[in-house]
Amino acid sequence: MSAKTSLSNRVNIGLALFIVFLLVFATNRLDQRHFNTVQDTLTTIYSDRVVAQDYVYKMSNVMCKKHLKILDASLVYSQSNLNKEFAALIDVFSTTKFTSRELRTFEELKENFNALLQLESKSTTLIDQDQQVLLIDAIKTDLNNLSLIQVSESKYKVGVAQRSLDTKNLMSTLEIVFLVIIGFTVQFALFYRVKKSMTKGKNQ
């Protein structure tokens, strides 16, 4: 009887340890998944949102200088140099990751900028200058919309990371509860069998 009890106890312990091992392994995989989600979010926020916002700010600054140059020709700004600077910023901005809405706004920005370049290549009459100001205002609107998108997408990404962390915290709590339940179950099984075995031994 004791040999059977001992064998049964070892089987129960082995089964319990196997369950704990599976739990730890599954937990590790889930932790890795949540870690990757948070890491990807932080990387995306910096490379595609913070950096992009900096490009948008610099492009807005260029447009403000172009507007001032139209209003006051005596300023040292060169429209040609400002156009080159803006074109370079468009190129680097295009390397960031776009949402569908952001891509549409960016395409509108490029169209308005190309229209401005074509207009500037013509004679600089007062009518042309008024049209240039209108195009610059349109470009500023595009840049403002792009800036709002950066904020919106950053907020969304932070929400994704926070939900991942909340899920991780919930899973950690459930893991502790599950381990406690397993511990009590194993102890109950072992002590119950030992007590039962001792009772049978006394009765015999």
Largest sheet: none
Helicity, in percent?
A: over 70%
- Radius of gyration, whole Å: 34 Å
Cα end-to-end separation: 11 Å
H and E string: HHHH
Portion of residues in beta strands equals under 5%
Assign the structural class, choosing from mainly alpha, mainly beta, alpha/beta, alpha+beta, or little secondary structure: mainly alpha
Q: What's the overall geometry?
A: rod-shaped
What's the β-strand tally?
0
Low-confidence region ranges = none
**What is the count of DSSP helices, taking H or I runs of 4+ residues?**
4
Mean pLDDT: 79
How would you summarize what this structure contains?
This protein is mainly alpha-helical. It is 90% helix and 0% strand.
Which properties best describe this structure?
mainly alpha, 4 helices, 90% helix
